[in-house]
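Quick illustration for those who missed Monday's session on complexes.
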Amino acid sequence: MENILKEAVESSRSVLKKGSVATYIPELAKADPEALAAAFCGTDGAMASAGDVNTSITVQSISKVASLGLALQMLGEDLIFSRVGVESSADPFNSIMRLEMKAPHRPLNPMINSGAILVLSLLPFKESGERLQAVLETMRLMTANQDLAINEAVAVSERDTSDRNRSLGYFLRSVGSMQGDVENVLDSYFRQCAIETTVKDLAVMGATLASGGRNPLSGNLIFSERVALILRALMGTCGLYDGSGDFAVRVGLPAKSGVGGGIVGSIAGRGGIATVGPALDSRGNSIGGIRVLEHLSRSMSLRVL
Ligand code: GLU
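Prediction with glutamic acid bound:
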């Protein structure tokens, strides 16, 4: 298995020069555009990895899987999906356009920024610190890594520059789609996006979803089977934003990307597969990660879509 991963990583490195690291969050511009790594964690807990496995990245949008899972678990799918849709989006992840165009001004899905911010606002916590702690704990449980922590420099960098997410939050409140203190919700959003992980953490996260919500390393049940299924389904249709269709054709896996350069894939009953590669394509998805997953989807017969 390690050799298969190594071959996929090494043969994909040439595509990295066509991508570039995210710069709209200034601190992310410091990431190494040449880093590339892959890991697979089976539903039996067996782990294999290759490439620059010690590269750590912030999870960014991958954290939306954890916060949505937490919200579904705490509040139930009827409530969550009465406030946010489950349809894929053809627009960039932070677009405001469609939100404004059509009443009832519901975000299209929980994987785009507007949807994730709205979902966070529904969690029953008053303080942003409590809300963040609950999401961080969910990430720790999904990865079986109690040491996961926030990269405060990245969180502050996003907080100081995120006019777009602020616009989404205030717009949602102005049309009555979201209630409460927007800054309070955004504070926990920026910090959950700045949780630092490695490719192995991300592979375990995918394996937890592949095992019906049970973490194969710790044996703990994190989500119900239904919640794990919903998360995989939404990763399959919306996990790579406006690149989700292209990814489905090329790779064929439920997966979630983040602008830090991570991608988490999940193959029900089989395991989690993850890549780290901070050089991104024009849609904000890891250019090297997609190439690695395309390779592995073929060589390991991972395709489920
Ligand atoms: N924190 C990022 C933002 O809100 C997450 C986006 C992403 O990973 O795609 O812009």
